[in-house]
UniProtKB/TrEMBL annotation:
Keywords: Hydrolase, Protease, Signal. Pfam families: Asp (PF00026). GO terms for molecular function: aspartic-type endopeptidase activity. One of its GO terms (biological process) is proteolysis. Residues 1-20 form the signal peptide. This is Acid protease. SUPFAM superfamilies: Acid proteases. InterPro entries: Aspartic_peptidase_A1 (IPR001461), PEPTIDASE_A1 (IPR033121), Peptidase_aspartic_dom_sf (IPR021109). It comes from Gloeophyllum trabeum (strain ATCC 11539 / FP-39264 / Madison 617) (Brown rot fungus). Residues 46-361 form the Peptidase A1 domain. Belongs to the peptidase A1 family.
Length: 361
């Protein structure tokens, strides 16, 4: 972690100043935030390696930049894999909103009615960062999202592709009468790893200057229409990857073309166009293809002593991950952390938690 580096993506939406239309100061007294000091929120890892925040005591929610909505399994969902569920009628602070929301997630949709609820994230100091009147989607049907004890998703996206910015944590915060004109956050993630359940930390309201070294690379977030990212997924955080290189096996591969790159810690690995993944593993002797149905991708088993490094170029900075991140030892076999999309027409990239664990975003 000592060499953790800084890579910043500035979402345009974070600069939007939402007019504070109500002067309620509800919940504000709970925030003892000293300007410039981040609220540090610890992340746990679930069994499938997703970074998880604890909200309102009972709920472990996986973080995702793919959506700005917070979604939780409702108590009427009788097939939500035994995860803790949310029953609005047991809450004294829930307000039912008219209408329902269908939120794209995991190449699928989570459907359900909308509620407003007062939420609070558990912080590192043992306190709670309260964020009242949050819009939540209460799902009534089972989804792969609700598994491994995870009750839902905490969206860290902007809803720029789908939905309403005011329904995001940022929009809600900026809509309060607190004088805030922007909401910044940082992620210092740990790589998904079965030997620990420590997923790193989120820094809310301010990045933590001590969490990174080196130069900052700024990238604008693409404001393209949905699904223009070439990954088949809906996402709010898509930036330009300016190129990459791979070293290992029988030689090195260099790509100066890059492409659209979705950044989302909900997914564990690095996903790239299928032909390029074929090229990478074609250079590694003993690599053999397997399916990764959970991400609609193709993965490869590799010899456990494979040496490889993958360098991604964003603007003037480049960021390298090596075999310590890219060769995943599952006990009985080793798997490469770079995968190819099953759908060979997809041209986009997706960088998940494994890559993000080497940078500060
Ligand atoms: C939700 O809570 C209400 C009030 O306690 C209870 O009557 C109802 O059975 C609960 N619903 C489910 C599906 O558990
Ligand atoms: C789930 O919620 C949606 C939106 O409110 C609704 O259209 C759908 O009928 C509900 N499904 C079930 C099984 O309750
Ligand atoms: C919460 O949001 C709803 C809908 O936007 C609004 O009607 C209500 O006044 C808000 N409540 C508080 C306490 O801000
Ligand atoms: C957007 O969300 C806010 C807060 O939940 C709500 O007050 C507003 O009506 C929503 N706008 C639309 C167009 O849905
Ligand atoms: C930061 O950028 C400057 C100017 O491009 C360069 O001289 C310097 O070596 C960089 N520092 C690091 C730590 O990469
Ligand atoms: C999303 O689902 C569609 C239809 O099932 C499929 O063709 C596409 O490849 C999927 N995309 C991804 C990234 O899984
Ligand atoms: C972690 O353990 C689970 C269950 O044993 C296994 O399915 C999964 O592939 C492992 N993940 C990694 C990254 O080793």
């Amino acid at each position: 972690m000592a060499s953790i580096r800084w890579l910043v993506f500035c979402a345009l939406a974070c600069l939007i100043t939402v007019q504070a239309s109500h002067s309620s100061s509800f919940g504000l007294s709970k925030r003892s935030w000293e300007k410039g000091q981040p609220i540090t929120v610890p992340l746990a890892l679930d069994a499938s390696g997703r970074p998880v925040v604890h909200v309102n005591m009972h709920f472990g929610l996986a973080i995702s930049t793919g959506t700005g909505y917070t979604m939780v399994a409702g108590s009427q969902c009788d097939s939500c894999s035994g995860v803790p569920t949310y029953n609005a009628s047991k809450s004294t602070t829930a307000q039912s909103l008219a209408g329902a929301r269908s939120v794209a997630m995991l190449n699928n949709t989570v459907d359900g009615p909308l509620y407003k609820e007062d939420c609070g994230m558990q912080t590192m100091s043992g306190g709670v960062w309260a964020y009242p009147n949050m819009t939540i989607v209460v799902a009534n049907a089972s989804m792969p999202v609700f598994s491994d004890g995870v009750s839902g998703v905490l969206g860290l996206g902007t809803n720029s592709r789908q939905g309403n910015f005011s329904d995001t944590i940022f929009g809600a915060y900026l809509g309060e009468d607190n004088g805030a004109t922007s909401f910044q956050y940082g992620m210092a993630l740990d790589a998904p790893d079965n030997s620990t359940n420590d997923g790193g930390v989120l820094h809310l309201l301010s990045p933590d200057g001590s969490a990174y070294t080196g130069n900052v690379s700024w990238k604008g977030v693409q404001q393209a229409s949905s699904n223009a990212d070439g990954t088949g997924l809906t996402s709010d955080w898509i930036i330009d990857l300016d190129g990459w290189s791979f070293a290992g096996g029988s030689g090195s591969i260099s790509n100066t073309q890059g492409g659209s790159c979705t950044v989302d810690p909900y997914y564990p690995n690095v996903y790239i166009p299928q032909n390029l993944a074929n090229e990478i593993y074609g250079s590694i002797s003993g690599a053999s293809q397997i399916s990764d149905a959970s991400a609609h991708a193709i993965a490869w088993t590799v010899p456990c002593d494979t040496k490889m490094s993958f360098t991604a170029v964003f603007g003037s900075e480049s960021f390298t991950v090596d075999q310590s991140i890219l060769v995943i030892n599952q006990g009985d076999r080793c798997i490469g952390g770079i995968e190819g999309w099953s759908d060979s027409s997809l041209t986009g990239y997706l960088f998940g938690a494994r890559f993000l664990s080497e940078v500060y975003v």
